[in-house]
Amino acid sequence: MTDPQIVLTERVQQALANAFGSEYADADPLIRPSQFADFQANVAMSLGKRLRRAPREVAQAIADQLADFPGTVEVSGPGFLNITLDPAWITAEATEMLADPRTGIGTATPPQRVVIDYSAPNAAKEMHVGHLRTTIVGDAMARIYEHLGSTVVRQNHLGDWGTPFGMLIEHLLDIGEEAAVAQLEAGQGTEYYQAARAKFDSDESFKTRSRQRVTTLQSGDPETMRLWHVFMEATIRYFNKVYEMLGVTLTDADIAGESMYNSMLEKTCDDLEAMGVAVMSEGALCLFPPGFTGSDDKPLPLIIRKSDGGYGYASTDMAAIRYRVDDLKADRILYVVGADQALHFRMVFAAAEQAGWLPDSVSAEHVQIGMMLGKDGRRFKTRSGESVKLMELLQEAVDRAGVIIADRGYDEETKGEIAHAVGMGAVKYADLSISHDSEYVFDFDRMLNFAGNTGPYMQYATARIRSIFRKAGLEPESARGPIVLGVPAERALALHLLGFGAVVDQVAALVEPHRLSAFLFETASLFSTFYEECPVLKEGVDAETRASRLALCALTLRVLETGLELLGVPVPDRM
C-alpha cells in the first residue's frame, strides 16, 4: 500500500515527462488535498509560464496522459487538475494495509545510525520543566527512528562536571553521605545546591575547601572521585524516577555526561591548534568559524580553552561531535536542545566542518526547543519565581486526571493506572502537538480536556474503538473485512488512513513530530464522523457491512495506537 499523494506525485510526474519531455519529470506537481476532489494538482499554473502556454492548456495535456489513472482527472478553473480516486483502489489499498503487520510504515533505506542528544539535566540542580520538552521530543524521535529500522544511539549529556561540584562534594561531607544521598534521591537537588551555594558565598573556609576540591576532582583524586560517584549515583536514581514516571526510554546505559569527555579535551585542543584551526586570542585558545561576527563586526570566537587553562561547553561539544562521528559512527546527529543555544550550535557545527571532523556524509542538526510559558505568557515558574520541579508538575497532572475520572466506577488500582496514563498522555501530547521550536503555554485545563486536539481526546478515541470490539465479542485482530466503502464518511476515513506511512517518513526526515500528532488528530476526527454516520453493531446492519466497518475500526485503531506509541503517549484500554 502507498500513500495516495505519493502515488499521484509519481503518476503526474510521469505524465509531465510524457507530455513535455523528460526534463520535466522532476517537477513538483504541487499536489494538495482539495475540497472539490480528493486532491488538486496546481503544477500547470507555474508550468504555463515556463512553457509559454496557457495553464489550462497545460493542465489538459497532463490530464490526457492520465487516461489509465485509477480515478477521474478533471481540468478546473484557470488550470487546476482535480483528482478523485476510484473507491475500488482505496478499498484495495486499505485492505492491504490492514493485512500489513507494520500498518503501512516502511523501513529506512538504507538504515542509519542516528545519535540523539536529549534530556540532559544538570546534576547540580533539580530536574525542572525546562527539561520536559527536550526529553519528550527526543524520546519520540528515538522511538520513530527505531521503528523505521535505524539504529538509535541515545546520549543523555548530563551536566555532571565543572566548578560547582567542588562545593557540592564539600557540602556532602559536611552533612554526611547518608543525609546527602537521601536528599538527592528525594528530588531535593535544588535545595541541596542552594544550601551549598549559601555556604560558599558566606563562609570563606568552605569556599577555600570547595576550590581545592575542584582541583582534586579534576586531577582524578580517588577519594574525591568516590564522593563524586556517590553524589551522581543518588542524583541519577532520582532522574530515573522522573523518566519512569514519564515513560521515556532513557536508561543508565545512555548516560554520556560532560565528565565522559574530560580525557579528550586536551587532545581536542591540541589537535585543533596543530591543524591551524584553533588560534590563541587574548590568552584563550579560540576557533573562528567563518561567517560569524559580533556586534562590532569582528570575528566571533568559540573559546575551547580559557585563558586560565579551563575548558567550557565549546570544548566538550567539539570533543563530543568528534567522538560521535569517529567512534559512534553516526550518520545523523540530533541535538535536542533549547532554541537559545542556536548560535552556539551553528558555530560548533561550522567549526567541526572546518576541522574536517564533520564530513558531508554526516548530518548534524540542532532540533530547537521553544520555551514553555505560563498562562501569563512568561517563562513557566512558581509564584515565588523558582523553576517548577518536573516531578511535582507530573504528579499534579496525574492527580488532576484522577479527579476527572473519579466517578467512572473503576476500582482504585484501575483508576490509578488510567489517571497515570491520562496525566502523562496529556502532558506529552500537548508538547508534541505543536512545532518543537515554538513557545507554548502550559495549561492543565486545556491539555486535560477530553475535547479538541489533546492527549485525552486521542486516548478516548482508541478506548471507544476498543469498546466497540468488546461489545461485538471480538478481538480487533480478528477483523479482516473485506472493506467496502459505501458511505462518504467511510471513504474519507479510509483514504486518510492510507497516508500514515508517508507521514511517519516525513516526521523522521524533518524531525517534526507535531506532523504525526496532526495526522492522528485528523484520524480521530474522521473516525468520530464515521462513528456517528455509520452504525457498526446496530440492529439492521447486514453482515457484510458490519464486517467491513469492523475492519475499518480495526485499521483506525492500529493507526492510532501505533502512532501514539511512536510519540510515547500511553494508551489505556478503558477511559
TrEMBL record:
Its main location: cytoplasm. Residues 458-575 form the DALR anticodon binding domain. It catalyses: tRNA(Arg) + L-arginine + ATP = L-arginyl-tRNA(Arg) + AMP + diphosphate. Gene3D superfamilies: Arginyl tRNA synthetase N-terminal domain, HUPs, Isoleucyl-tRNA Synthetase, Domain 1. It is found in: Cytoplasm. Monomer. Belongs to the class-I aminoacyl-tRNA synthetase family. HAMAP family: Arg_tRNA_synth (MF_00123). This is Arginine--tRNA ligase. The lineage of its organism: Bacteria, Bacillati, Actinomycetota, Actinomycetes, Streptosporangiales. The gene is argS.
